[in-house]
Write the structure tokens for this entry.
Amino acid sequence: MKIPALPAAMTPLATLATLALLLCACRAEGGRDDGAVSEKEVPAGPERAAAAAARVLPALTRDLAEKGLEPGDPVFFRAFKEERELELWLQPEPGARFVLFRTYRIAAASGSLGPKLAEGDRQVPEGFYFVTPGRMNPASRFHLAFNIGYPNAYDRHHGRGGSLIMAHGDRVSIGCLAMTDAGIEEIYTLADAALESGQPFFRIHLFPFRMSGERMERARDERWFPFWRNLREGYDFFETHRQPPNVELEDGRYIFEPAAP
């Protein structure tokens, strides 16, 4: 099953930035210790996302420029459960290799190593997922969020259940990737900017750990080692090409091929 190509969002990034700056100017005094936009200052929804963008875009734009990147460039995420890290990569131009921009600390993630199997098991999924514009949620109870798209075709093929697995703020997790509010504001802003600039969806790959040869050898006797060997094929593809692969399902396994330009 191929990832669908969806129509690009048409709202210009400049419009978002202008709205965000206007909203930021109207914020009440006070704020959060981590500098993120407070729910008391700006209500949930597009206004909160715009206010967050206004706060973080100036510094993000400066830091991105140092790596030849800018807001609106296509994004890609990788998460590692054991290390509790979420990587944010951007692509400076079509066909180019992705560039690592930042690695964020995952503030909370429940469960243990191994895939999510059922609703309520508190597990963070492992596998290959993608986020469309409709999965972005600026009205989340957990500040800002996006739905990673679990379960995917592989999960459904293997009878795995559960739903509404998010990357979000508020530092609390039951099967989700919980970030600090300040962290999710940067992550959400750059993901949203990429979608607004025409990226039809972005990929997020979730791994149990960094899949080096040494770490895989230590996992050889684990229950999920055959599954992890399949995940490592996708991990190695990106390590080699610095472009996330297109992921399909064949005979109950993930297979990987170069994504369309």
Remarks:
- The chain has one domain: 13-257.
- Residues 46-65 form the longest helix (20 residues).
- The domain at 13-257 is CATH 2.40.440.10 (L,D-transpeptidase catalytic domain-like).
